[in-house]
């Protein structure tokens, strides 16, 4: 069906906005991957007041629009500044440490063009570790995204900057990236978009996402802090008309599911980091999990995971008594 | 080639005022694009906007706040220069052309402002204007002391934003002051010493204003310490200069708060009195008492003469 649509090269024009801050060694890879991902790609690199070699690297890159902010503004503001230079009807925000897969922009654009109502298109993402090797895991959006608003609101699936192309007219109606929401600003935007417009997905993987480790210094390194922030901001998002007009019980259930999910992930993280000896980070995750969802404490499964993580050490075998 | 101007009018549920603002913007310049950002208003505003021909209409379906709405307008605009206009303010005829000429004659300048006529609640001029004199050139330190740039009188190059960033949308007030300071840090500022816009006086009698005033001043004090003094220009300045700036700013804030306090006392709003006192206490009791002494001495002098 998609092939039968007459899609010209002009229609496939997309602006890829890459905010960057002091990662010159990764930036080139992101830019080249974006260039190979589509036939008509306009690349806009927004340098958020880097003080290292980023500027030189950007000057050496051919055929990009380079914007340099003199004062550090944060990633949300840098993305917004990139929009000032975008001339295409569609925009893709790419982080400097992520990569687009070959041809992925074109594939997603065709889907977005064939569905005039949709606000953004999203796709599966491959996970990679710090050195860029694929971990074999894939993060896929639901195959039926009719419930995307609630799914996104509950963190049921992630739309990531690397996997999303947004229609600019929809973006203007939903509003820009908001400041003061470091690391969850993109989530905030996708929820606002999904409240107004249908979301569509493609099946094939579209990008590679660099997974954070607790020590990689990425924005997503500190999971507990992000979850606490997201749980706080979710209350604000519940004021969106679409959520406000839903029955109270639905909103309450949605809130509960989210907090439980956050808590479970944090308990899981705490359990996996215990055997590695990261006691402080395990403790922080456990405490944050409890703050988010205290009643999760009475679920036996969390103790099982915590204990199981100790069993290989042989320390707790006796304590359990079996 | 003359610089083109985008006038950005953020509006929310005030359709009766909007038309006047839009028409004044058109009359103010020859090469003007009017961008109306409708910040999730009810149906009637959209209706009024549809009736206006030749405007760029941006509709935000989620409430953005003033700074967020203006940022949307900036993204949607196509002009070389930006001017903000509120839906209850008015641009004077020919004023934008005048300011564009000023900007064109000084390629290093980033922003040009002017005086604003002060109008009453009915939108009629009161005969007063602000500010009395307009400092020009490198006014970074002056601007740290007090915001003397009336928002509807400004015109700035869009290219300034590429270096300093957009408006800070986390701020609920003083977001314009914050932007002027960031621009003044890097650019020369120009002024035309004549009225270019008409500004509707804030309403000191309305509850909303009284309750927010202390809050806004406190926000400014936080911004001053945590953002403005951390700009590279302030960070690398001599400590005496910094101390001086801090003293001038705090004096201004304290004066405002004392003025506010006296009014609240007169009106008998004891809750607000307590609130204002607590802000004053945080700014420093010593400063408060010296400023109060000065204030009462001035009043005594005024009484004897």
What does this structure look like?
The complex is a heterodimer of chains A (322) and B (305). Chain A is of the alpha/beta class. Chain A is 43% helix and 16% strand. Chain A is built from 13 helices and eleven strands. Chain A has helices spanning 24-36, 54-60, 75-83, 104-114, 148-153, 168-174, 185-196, 223-237, 241-244, 248-273, 279-292, 300-308, 317-320; strands at 13-20, 40-48, 65-69, 90-93, 99-100, 120-122, 125-128, 134-139, 165-167, 199-201, 207-210. In chain A, strands 3-2-1-4-9-6-10 form a seven-stranded mixed sheet, sandwiched between helices. In chain A, strands 5-11-7-8 form a four-stranded mixed sheet. In chain A, α1 runs parallel beside α2 (54-60), α8 (223-237) packs antiparallel against α10 (248-273) and α10 (248-273) packs parallel to α12 (300-308). Chain A is globular and about 60 Å long. Chain B is α/β, with parallel strands linked by helices and 305 residues long. Chain B has two domains: 5-200, Spore Coat Polysaccharide Biosynthesis Protein SpsA, Chain A, CATH 3.90.550; 207-304. Chain B is built from twelve helices and nine strands. In chain B, strands 1, 2, 3, 4, 5, 6, 7, 8 and 9 form a nine-stranded mixed sheet that branches. At the A-B interface, β3, α3, α6 and α7 of A face β3, α3, α6 and α7 of B.
Question: In terms of topology, how is this protein built?
Answer:
The complex is a heterodimer of chains A (322) and B (305).
Chain A: E1 13-20, H1 24-36, E2 40-48, H2 54-60, E3 65-69, H3 75-83, E4 90-93, E5 99-100, H4 104-114, E6 120-122, E7 125-128, E8 134-139, H5 148-153, E9 165-167, H6 168-174, H7 185-196, E10 199-201, E11 207-210, H8 223-237, H9 241-244, H10 248-273, H11 279-292, H12 300-308, H13 317-320
Parallel strand pairs in A: 1-2, 1-4, 2-3, 6-10, 7-11
Antiparallel strand pairs in A: 4-9, 5-11, 6-9, 7-8
Chain B: E1 5-11, H1 15-28, E2 32-39, H2 43-51, E3 55-60, H3 65-76, E4 81-86, E5 90-91, H4 95-105, E6 109-119, E7 125-130, H5 140-145, E8 155-157, H6 158-164, H7 175-186, E9 188-200, H8 207-226, H9 232-235, H10 239-267, H11 270-283, H12 285-304
Parallel strand pairs in B: 1-2, 1-4, 2-3, 6-9
Antiparallel strand pairs in B: 4-8, 5-9, 6-7, 6-8
Helix pairs in contact in B: 8-10, 8-11, 10-11, 10-12
């Amino acid at each position: 069906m998609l092939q039968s649509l007459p899609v010209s090269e002009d229609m496939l024009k997309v602006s890829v906005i890459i905010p960057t801050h002091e990662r010159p060694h990764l930036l080139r890879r992101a830019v080249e991957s974006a260039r190979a991902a589509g036939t008509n790609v306009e690349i806009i690199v927004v340098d958020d007041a880097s003080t290292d070699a980023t500027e030189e690297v950007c000057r050496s890159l051919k055929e990009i629009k380079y914007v340099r902010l003199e004062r550090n503004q944060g990633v949300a503001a840098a993305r917004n500044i990139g929009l000032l230079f975008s001339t295409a009807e569609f925009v893709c925000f790419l982080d400097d440490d992520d990569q687009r897969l070959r041809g992925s922009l074109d594939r997603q654009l065709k889907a977005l063009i064939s569905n005039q109502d949709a606000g953004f298109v999203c796709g599966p993402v491959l996970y990679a570790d710090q050195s860029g090797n694929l971990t074999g895991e894939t993060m896929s959006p639901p195959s039926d995204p009719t419930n995307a608003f609630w799914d996104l609101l509950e963190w049921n699936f992630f739309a990531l900057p690397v996997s999303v192309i947004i229609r600019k007219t929809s973006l203007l109606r939903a509003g820009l990236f908001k400041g003061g929401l470091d690391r969850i600003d993109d989530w905030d935007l996708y929820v606002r978009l999904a409240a107004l417009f249908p979301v569509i997905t493609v099946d094939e993987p579209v990008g590679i996402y660099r997974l954070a480790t607790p020590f990689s210094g990425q924005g997503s390194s500190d999971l507990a802090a992000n979850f606490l922030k997201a749980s706080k901001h979710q209350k604000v998002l519940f004021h969106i008309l679409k959520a406000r007009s839903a029955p109270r019980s639905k909103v309450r259930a949605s809130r509960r599911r989210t907090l439980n999910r956050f808590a479970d992930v944090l308990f899981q993280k705490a359990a996996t980091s215990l055997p590695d000896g990261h006691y402080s980070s395990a403790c922080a995750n456990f405490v944050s999990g409890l703050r988010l969802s205290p009643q999760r404490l009475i679920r036996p499964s969390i103790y099982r995971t915590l204990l199981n993580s100790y069993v290989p050490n042989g320390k707790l075998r006796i304590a359990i008594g079996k | 080639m003359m610089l083109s101007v985008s006038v950005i009018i953020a509006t929310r549920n005030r359709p009766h005022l909007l038309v006047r603002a839009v028409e004044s913007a058109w009359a103010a310049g020859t090469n003007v694009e009017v961008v109306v950002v409708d910040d999730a208003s009810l149906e009637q505003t959209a209706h009024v906007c549809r009736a206006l021909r030749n405007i760029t209409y941006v509709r935000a379906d989620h409430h953005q706040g003033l700074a967020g709405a203006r940022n949307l307008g900036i993204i949607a605009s196509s002009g070389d220069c930006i001017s903000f206009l509120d839906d209850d303010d008015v641009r004077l005829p020919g004023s934008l052309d005048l300011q564009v000429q000023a900007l064109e004659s000084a390629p290093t300048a980033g922003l040009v402002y002017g005086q604003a006529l002060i109008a009453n609640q009915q939108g009629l001029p009161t005969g007063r204007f602000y500010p009395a004199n307009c400092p020009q050139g490198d006014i970074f330190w002056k601007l740290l002391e007090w915001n003397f740039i009336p928002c509807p009188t400004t015109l700035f190059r869009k290219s300034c934003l590429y270096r300093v960033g957009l408006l800070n949308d986390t701020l609920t007030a003083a977001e314009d002051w914050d932007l002027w300071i960031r621009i003044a840090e890097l650019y020369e500022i120009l002024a035309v010493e004549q009225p270019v816009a008409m500004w509707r006086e804030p309403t000191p009698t309305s509850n909303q204003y009284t309750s927010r005033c202390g809050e806004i001043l406190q926000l400014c004090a936080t911004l001053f310490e945590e953002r403005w003094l951390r700009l590279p220009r302030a960070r690398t300045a001599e400590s005496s200069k910094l101390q001086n700036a801090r003293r001038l700013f705090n004096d201004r804030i304290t004066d405002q708060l004392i003025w506010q306090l006296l009014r609240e006392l007169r009106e008998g709003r004891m809750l607000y009195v307590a609130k204002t006192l607590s802000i004053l206490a945080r700014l420093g009791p010593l400063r408060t008492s010296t400023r109060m002494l000065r204030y009462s001495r001035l009043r005594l002098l005024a009484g004897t003469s």
